[in-house]
Amino acid sequence: xxxxxxxxxxxxxxxxxxxxxxxxxxxxSCLIVSFTSVGQERDKWPPKEFVGLASxxxxxxxxxxxxxxxxxxxSNGMANLIVTKISxxxxxxxxxxxxxxxxxxxxxxxxxxxxxxxxxxxxxxTPQYSVHPEVLPEEKRWWWFRKQITNWPHKQMDKLPKPPxxxxxxxxxxxxxxxxWERFPTAPNLRHYIFRGADHNFVRNLKxxxxxxxIVVAAINDRPGRLGKVVQRAGGLRRADYAxxxxxxxxxxxxxxxxxxxxxxx
Length: 266
Hints:
Elements: H1 3-8, E1 11-16, E2 19-24, E3 30-35, H2 51-55, E4 61-67, H3 78-93, E5 97-103, H4 105-116, E6 121-125, H5 143-146, E7 167-172, H6 175-181, E8 190-195, H7 203-208, H8 211-220, H9 224-233, E9 236-238, H10 239-254, H11 262-265
Helix pairs in contact: 8-9
């Protein structure tokens, strides 16, 4: 069996609306849980994400968790069900290390999982701080899905998963991104990067330049130094450094251009 074919052979672990959980076995004792994002079509299951990067050519076990309701883990009992399914898989396959990865809603779900069970690593691209209308009234996206949510056990990410779990978080700096990332708390186990000029969908640009693969591989292997260099080359800054950069940029943008004194022109 080829490695490429092996990556596609997922086993269905759970398939009861609105949740689908699938897994593909790996060779090591590491499991990477990938949460899907909202996707593009309302009535279709969002596609699996990060499968190839997480699997690392079949070395790691990969579990894909898809929520067609797009509830940001707020459906009654969803988080506990996911924890149970992961725990069962861990026992059945001798897993000793669990990581989580996702983008957008999937990244938020990965953070929720990190608050429910111990993880070795969390890799999250453009997670929302909250989609609750009272917490972020300025957020207008994904409204059709959000208005279906009536129960909010995971209303906002005011508390991050606790140390020692390393959290790698990535955002753009457009206004729709800023409203989320500036609300996230800082923490000793959080490495938070902001990409200049990037919007909510900047991950697809990282993928096209092969930068996404380098970032994910460095995060999986917990190599923050290597990851920082890759991020910097792609235009990203640590959150604290970005704040200083933004202040300097605003200063020079607002600074009036000096003119020559009239006496020197005469």
